[in-house]
Write a structure and sequence with these properties.
The structure is a single chain. With about 250 residues, this protein is of the alpha+beta class. The protein has helices spanning about 5-10, 35-45, 75-80, 130-140, 205-210, 220-230, 240-249; strands spanning about 15, 25-35, 50-55, 60-70, 85-95, 100-110, 115-120, 145-160, 165-180, 180-185, 190-195. Helices cover about 25% and strands about 40% of the residues. The longest helix is centred in the N-terminal third of the chain and has 11 residues, at about 35-45. This is Polyphosphate polymerase domain-containing protein.
C-alpha cells in the first residue's frame, strides 16, 4: 500500500507547543528548499527518527492563514526584488485550528539573519488598529502607510530536531487570494530549516543533498504577488517562477 504524508506524520513521536520553547529561534538563519509533494514521502521516511512532530489538540498538519501588508507602491516586494539586504515583511497570521492570531514583523539583515517580532491580536485587521500601528512603527522605526495586499492559506507540518537546536516547517497546499482572484500551488512543498546558524549536519539537509536538492531562496509573499499582480517587476524572480511552474506542472 502506498504511504501517504499523513500516515508518515502520524508515525512520528510528538512534541507539544510548550516543549518547543527552547527552539523558538526568533532570531535565526532560515534555509529554504522547494520540492514536489511526491518527493516529500521519501524525505520524511528518511528523517523521521531524527525529529519530533508538533501536535496541537490531536492535529499534526495545521492550517494557517496569512494577510500580508505593503505600501501602495509595494515597497516590501520591491525591496526583495531589488536585492536589498535589510528588508521588512509585515503580516497577520492566524493558526486556524487554534484560533490564535498574531501581527508579525520579519526583519532580515545583511548578514543573512532573520528577526521575527510579534504581538497577539484578536483577529485579522484589514484596517490596522492604533495598537498595531504603534507596534509596527516602534519595531521598524518607520511610519509606513500600509494596506492589506494579499491573502495566503496553506497547511504546515512542524518538525523539531531531537538533539540539535533546529526546527523545520513543511508548507503544502499553498493558495493565494486577492479580491476574489485565486492562485493555488497544490504540488509545491516549501521546506524551511530554521537554525541559529546554517549547519549541513542537519538530517533533512543531508537527505535533500542526497537527492541533489540544494537550498533555494524563495518568498511565499513574492510568489503570491507575482501570481496575482500584473504590474510588478519580476526579472530577478523569473528563474524562480520557471522552476516553481516546472515543479508544480
Amino acid at each position: 500500500m502506498k504511504q501517504s504524508i499523513p500516515d508518515i506524520v502520524k508515525s512520528l513521536t510528538s512534541i507539544s507547543l510548550s516543549d518547543m520553547e527552547d527552539v523558538a529561534l526568533m532570531k535565526r538563519t532560515d534555509t529554504k528548499f522547494v520540492i514536489h509533494e511526491n518527493q516529500l514521502i521519501s524525505v520524511l521516511n528518511a528523517v523521521k527518527n531524527a525529529y519530533h512532530v508538533l501536535e496541537i489538540d490531536g492535529k499534526r498538519i495545521m492550517r494557517y492563514s496569512s494577510l500580508y501588508f505593503d505600501t501602495a507602491n509595494k515597497k516590501f516586494y520591491n525591496d526583495h526584488h531589488n536585492g536589498k539586504v535589510n528588508r521588512t515583511k509585515i503580516r497577520m497570521r492566524k493558526y486556524v485550528d487554534s484560533d490564535i492570531c498574531f501581527l508579525e514583523i520579519k526583519q532580515k539583515d545583511g548578514k543573512g539573519s532573520t528577526t521575527k517580532t510579534r504581538i497577539s491580536i484578536d483577529d485579522f485587521e484589514q484596517d490596522l488598529s492604533e495598537n498595531s500601528i504603534g507596534f509596527i512603527n516602534e519595531t521598524t522605526n518607520s511610519d509606513f502607510n500600509l494596506e492589506p495586499i494579499i491573502w495566503n492559506n496553506f497547511k504546515r507540518i512542524t518538525l523539531v530536531n531531537k538533539v540539535a537546536k533546529e526546527r523545520l516547517t513543511i508548507d503544502l497546499n499553498l493558495v493565494f487570494n486577492k479580491s476574489g482572484s485565486f492562485k493555488s500551488y497544490n504540488n509545491l512543498v516549501i521546506i524551511e530549516v530554521k537554525q541559529e546558524r546554517f549547519s549541513r549536519s542537519s538530517p533533512v539537509v543531508q537527505q535533500l543533498k542526497l537527492k541533489q536538492i540544494n537550498p533555494y531562496s524563495i518568498s511565499k509573499y513574492c510568489i503570491g504577488m507575482l501570481s496575482l499582480y500584473n504590474d510588478l517587476k519580476y526579472n530577478r524572480f523569473k528563474k524562480k517562477l520557471i522552476r516553481i511552474n516546472k515543479i508544480t506542472a
